[in-house]
């Protein structure tokens, strides 16, 4: 079983040739060859989305009819060596699958590279600063693209390792085949093996290129993270400044609301005297505003003083409570020992009296 890349159009979005209109996902392909006890009849089962029925729009090498015809030709040439024929047919299918998987991975790498250009992100030829609003999304897309390349690398390594294991097993079976082959059959066998090796080499080349690209652009990852962290810090500073301004506005609106609430109390409650009018209302707002401003200005010192006073009261109180608890625990322990000894003495006296009574009888 080989893991490969697949792509399809994103649902609901018309495709216009843009790389962003496609999604990439992992796909599995299975090639199963079975034979009877004598080895003279084999059946091949292919489960894959990389092969097609006969179609003029698809590559001829990936159509099932073409693969079937090539497999029959192999079987006719190696009719007396069915084990070699089966391995070469497997080589044929696996080689075409390697080429298709390599093409899919190249397409995925091209799509990611078309979305973001790593060099263009840091080299602002248009004169834009790094803190411009339209530049930060480019850094986020760059970090996303780098993570996507890491995922491609991980899946491609699994694919190459799986195909390499299958190649080693097929090579061992071909070498263990019974009898010897003539020069013509040996050359034909080597031709099919070389055909597979060319497809597998294309896949290995994609793997090597992906590793090289990732090694070259990995240095950008720390830059992406540093810039994004700096941007988050700037946003936090801006939010803190906004909260600070809103706090100042609250300090101004709080006395007004409090004064309005006091003067809105009905006269039957006798909270505000009737002669108190607009002047008293304005002076009340000013007094509350000054008091609130002083409280806000000295709030840190007041809290520190309150904490110091609270600790000065709480520490002696805590010490007293701890001593009292220790005394209570010691008293309870002594009372338990006294109660046990008293109970033991009563039981001993009762046992002694019973013994004397039994002796008198």
Structural class: mainly alpha
Unreliable stretches (pLDDT < 50, length at least 5) are 1-5, 7-20
Q: Describe the largest sheet.
A: 3 strands, antiparallel
What is the rounded distance between the termini?
A: 100 Å
Number of domains: 3
Number of helices: 8
Radius of gyration: 43 Å
The string of secondary-structure elements, in order, is EEEHHHHHHHH
Number of strands: 3
Spatial arrangement of strands, main beta sheet: 1-2-3
Strand proportion, as a percent range, falls in 5-15%
- Name the shape in a single word: flat
Mean pLDDT: 76
Helix content: over 70%
What does this structure look like?
- The protein is mainly alpha-helical and 361 residues long.
- It has eight helices and three strands, in the order βββαααααααα.
- The chain is flat, with a radius of gyration of 43 Å.
- The chain has a three-stranded antiparallel sheet.
- The chain folds into three domains: 2-217, no CATH class; 239-297, no CATH class; 308-361.
- The chain has helices at 64-77, 82-115, 118-122, 136-175, 183-217, 219-263, 278-297, 299-360, and strands at residues 2-9, 22-35, 42-47.
- α1 (64-77) packs antiparallel against α2, α4 runs antiparallel to α5 (183-217) and α4 packs across α6 (219-263).
- The N and C termini lie far apart (100 Å).
